[in-house]
Amino acid sequence: MSATCEETVKLSDNVRKEIDDWLTRFPPEQKRSATLYALRMVQEENGWVSKPHMNAIAEYLEIAPVAVYEVATFYTMYDLEPKGKHKIGVCTNVSCQLCGSDKIVEHIKNKYQVGLNEVTKDGKYFFQEVECLGSCCGAPVVIVDDKHYKEKLTPEGLEKVLQELEG
Amino acid sequence: MFNIEIDGQQVEVEQGQMIIEAADAAGIAIPRFCYHKKLSIAANCRMCLVEVEKARKPMPACATPVTEGMRVFTKTPAAIHSQRTVMEFLLINHPLDCPICDQGGQCELQDISMSYGEGVSEYTQGKRSVDGDDLGSLVATDMTRCIHCTRCIRFCEEVAGIKELGATNRGEHMEVGTYVDHALESEVSGNIIDLCPVGALTSKPFRYQARAWELQQMPSVASHDCVGANTFVHTRRQEVMRVVPRECEDVNEVWLSDRDRFSYTGLESEERLAKPLVKQDGQWQEATWADALNAVKEGLQRVKDKHGASQIAALSHPSSTTEEHYLLQKLMRGIGCHNLDHRLNRVDFSDQDQFGLYPRIGTPVAKIDELNAILLVGSNIRHEQPSIGLRVRKAALSGAHVMMVNPMAYEFHMPMSESVVVKPSEMVSALAQVAKAASELASGEVPAAAAKLLSGVSYSEAHKTIAKKLADAEQATIMMGALAQNHAHAANIRALCNLIAEFTGSSCGALTEGANAQGAWLVGMLPHRAMAGADAMVPGLDAQTCFAEKLRAYVLHGIEPEADVANSQVALDALKQADFVVSTTVFVTDAMKEYADVILPVAPATETSGTFINVEGRWQGFRGARPAFEEGRPAWKVFRVLGNLFALEGFDFESSEQVLTEVHAKVKQLEGKVHAWVAPERLPASHEKGLEVIAERALYQTDAIVRRAAPLASSKANPEFGVHVSVQTAQSAGVESCEQVEVKAGEHRVSLPLVLDERVPTGAVWLPSGYAESAVLTSHATVTLAKG
Predict the structure, then answer these.
(1) Do A90 and A162 sit in the same domain of this protein?
(2) Quick check: B664 contacting A, CB < 8 Å?
(3) What CATH number is attached to the domain comprising A47?
(4) Total domains, chain A
(5) Do A151 and A97 fall within a single domain?
(6) Residue B647, class by beta-carbon neighbours within 10 Å (0-12 exposed, 13-18 middle, 19+ buried)?
(7) Is the domain of A159 the same as that of A121?
(8) Exposed / middle / buried, residue B46 (Cβ in 10 Å: 0-12, 13-18, 19+)
């Protein structure tokens, strides 16, 4: 049941291992339940989720490819196109805004010549507008590569964070 | 059982029913889009909101179970208000392009918006548009019209068993489609056209052809498989425009296979024959019916006078009507010819005397859903009998053990409990192993003949599992498919299946080819049987011997030997050397012009009245949906006039009903043969050299009409044309990297595309039968492969 004539990819051993771990938490006939996690693993490893990757997940979980497409397109936090090398999520919700997230947004616009939800020309950074990260005590907050919280940031602080990524 | 009240009316309901089911049963109309009685409940369109006493808010009738003493109101101001509001919501993004929409005039959205829609909407924002996917040659998409009821998605997943459609993105951006380029692979995909309540999914072949209100509707019966799905044929000005399902719970429920739905397109073929043709001095001339029929009479009479009537054979396609089978055999027997047959693809006739009235399925079609265990023997059920395939899947989903003994590892749309996949030559021994395991489970005494037959057989775990699951099941059946019936040792297979059935308390039956093999058996379109199972007074030759013996004259009814007959090369050779060949046919081919002397245009099932008897013995009569094309005539009339020309008695019929009345009367008079199979004396040894051939009739090659249906031919459900082998087989033949390979069988060499297919067992090749290109190969037991 190959759905596309696109190239095929194989899930890495690491992703398979992680999926297998998640599968132990669901009934054996409910492999479909692991779709969310499988997509997350692939995105973490690959930076984004391609169609061949989705097909590979479908094959591994023994479900129809379209069932994976449904899930992947439903949730906005899966990136279905290649984004920058690093993902920088800037929270623009009330607490962060009050504490100066708009200065960070302004800085990005000036220095990198891109708006939010855009990739820099050199492909290094993808600046993304995100909703509340639940860490209002540390506002303004930025999330790096979907994982690392950087709190009480200023434009200068952001530059430091980006430099650390380079190093 | 208890009562609820709907709109003041007392309605008796069962625990667990939804309000909408109770209302439907009581004839109270509730508008709906997403609800469909054959699909799971989604409750996402909200159109069926009704007022329920003591409920705080409107309730969806499709997803609200009935409770005792419930009072439901479907027409109160509150209910109507909810429905109107939902209607306005559903129309936010609907383009209302009814004037250019194929669904216009038969659209649920159009109808309901007439009743519930407002003239003006509060939503003034722009509407979204959606690019539809290309779903292949059968279903057209206009997804801007989609209202997201998800019926099509649920059908594919739940009924068809292949999840090909999905809802991607969300909220206002939700789109129904395949997300990637993907043409539908399901053999029953056309049903989503009927299910779609709007014009998002429409029939591609019917697109822009006609408006619903221009069409006339005639009930009919599909003529391409042994189920006989009930249909409506829609015509406009005496032209068949489309075919849709006619609900019949006991046969096809509300579904129709793509083959039955789209085969009508084959009738428009350029090869359609308009007038009788007679060959005079080697030249084909159009002739009047009188002249053509006289030519037939003279031709047959000449052969009879010179060589005797035993040098004549008559063969009829199993999809011919009962009336046609009856009159043809009556005509031929009347002139002394006893070489009659309709079993064109069978090669082993050794057990033909052990059949009952006719081969039939072991259980009524409607009861398949309730079975607990089903063993498929030599059957690609999805392609052979799509409607039965859906029933078997239904049984599997409700817990039945579906198992198979097959020469191919077919991927079915249901979980398989156990599969034994062996090369064709090992089919018999595989079944013997199951029989042996079953004999050890049997409670009664094993008959001596069977015990002797199975004495040296040992079995493995898989065979034992099959036997045990059949034996443990409360209701179990064994279904023999085409690959079992057309097997070189079909008699052994049948005997062993019956043996397994007896040991395990199962029923056993066959899924026959064509729409009316049962009718042919019943009226004696057979060399060894006359009416209703009586032995023929003078036995004749079976279909294959008729050709192998190279007789002097042939009468072919509805047959294209190059594609319809097992050993097509032998058949063509025999026809070419014969003194006289008459073909009654819907289409004329170049091959036919080479071997025939008279070609008579006869009406297909859409243009004649007749009766099909389906695989469970259900007599289904139908009338022509339109008069015969050009000068074509119903075949029963042709045989009747020929009977008159030969001055035979009892050919005074004025309608096909009169023929049927005579058939009925004769069937009643005679008693059918008691079913009595005999255990074979010994089992054939399997030692074939070369690669064994699995010749399966391709999905859309079943008969002359289906073969010519262009939209079906380009459907992705069709198996890929070529010689299918496993990688291992290809490697040992050294052809794994070839696109084209030379397939050799005897002196025949054919170049065919190579398809690597893991379903084929090592040491075998799969070839599609029904194609002229591969026809010379499919009758051979083995072939070899070489680089081509």
Answers:
(1) yes
(2) no
(3) 1.10.10.1590
(4) 2
(5) yes
(6) exposed
(7) yes
(8) buried
What lies within 8 Å, CB to CB, of B647 at 6+ separation is none
pLDDT at B368 > cutoff 70 = yes
Size of interface A-B (CB pairs under 8 A): 41
User: Could you give phi then psi for residue B569, rounded to 5 degrees?
Assistant: -65, -45
Q: Which segments within B246-356 are labelled E, that is strand?
A: 277-280, 283-286, 312-316, 339-341
Domain-located, residue A39:
yes
Domain-ending residue, one of A21, A41, A74? A74
Per residue in B373-428, pLDDT (tens digit) is 999 999 999 999 999 999 999 999 999 999 999 999 999 999 999 999 999 999 99
Q: Judge if A98 and A158 occupy the same domain.
A: yes
Does A90 lie in the same domain as A23?
no
Using the Cβ of B181 and the Cβ atoms of chain A, whether some distance falls under 8 Å is answered with: yes
| Chain B residues in contact with A6 (beta carbon < 8 A) | 180
Integer Cα distance of B595 and B587 in angstroms: 15
Number of H helices, E strands in chain B: 26, 32
Tell whether A79 is covered by a domain.
no
In a shared domain, residues A114 and A94: yes
The answer to the question of residue A162 being in a domain is yes
pLDDT band at A2 (very low <50, low <70, confident <90, very high): very low
Nearest-CA neighbor of B608 among B326, B226, B324? B324
Residue B743 has pLDDT above 70, yes or no: yes
Q: Give just the sign of the alpha carbon dihedral A68, A71, A76, A78.
A: negative
Q: Is residue A135 part of a domain?
A: yes
Which of residues A28, A45, A74 is at a domain's end? A74
Hey, is the C-beta of B416 within 8 angstroms of any chain A C-beta?
Answer: no
Most confidently modeled range among B44-58, B345-359, B678-692, B733-747 = B44-58
Decide if B179 and A73 are in contact by the 8 Å CB cutoff.
yes
Phi, psi of B787, deg, nearest 5: -60, 135
Confirm or reject contact between A70 and chain B (CB < 8 A): yes
pLDDT of residue A47: 86
Q: Are B786 and B732 in contact (CB under 8 A)?
A: no
Cis upstream peptide for A27 (omega within 30°): no
Answer yes or no: do A70 and A103 share one domain: no
Count of CB atoms within 10 A of residue B636's CB? 28
Please work out, in degrees rounded to the nearest 5, the angle formed at the alpha carbon of residue B174 by the alpha carbons of B130 and B117.
80
d(CA B297, CA A118) in angstroms, rounded, equals 84
What tens digit of pLDDT does each residue of B604-660 get? 999 999 999 999 999 999 999 999 999 999 999 999 999 999 999 999 999 999 999
**Do residues B102 and B207 touch, judged by C-beta distance below 8 A?**
yes
Q: Return the DSSP state at B65.
A: B
Residues 6+ apart with CB under 8 A from B152: B165, B176, B192, B195, B196, B201
CATH number, domain with residue A128 = 3.40.30.10
Q: Output the six-digit token pair for B308.
A: 């005797």
Q: For residue B531, what pLDDT is reported? A: 87
Residue range B158-183: mean pLDDT, rounded: 94
- Assess whether pLDDT exceeds 60 at residue B358: yes
Task: Say yes or no: A60 and A104 in one domain.
Answer: no
Shortest CA distance from B173: residue in chain A: A74
Predicted local confidence at residue B473, as pLDDT:
96
- For B375, how many CA atoms within 13 A lie in the half-sphere containing its CB? 35
Whole-angstrom distance, CA of residue B566 vs CA of residue B770: 9
Strand bridging mode A125-130 / A86-91: parallel
Residue A153 belongs to domain spanning: 86-166
DSSP annotation of A49 reads -
CB under 8 Å to A21, separation ≥6 — which residues? none
Count the neighbouring beta carbons within 10 Å of the beta carbon of residue B218: 18
- Is B164's CB within 8 Å of A70's CB? no
d(C-alpha B25, C-alpha B27), whole Å: 5
Secondary structure of residue B81 in the 3-state scheme: helix
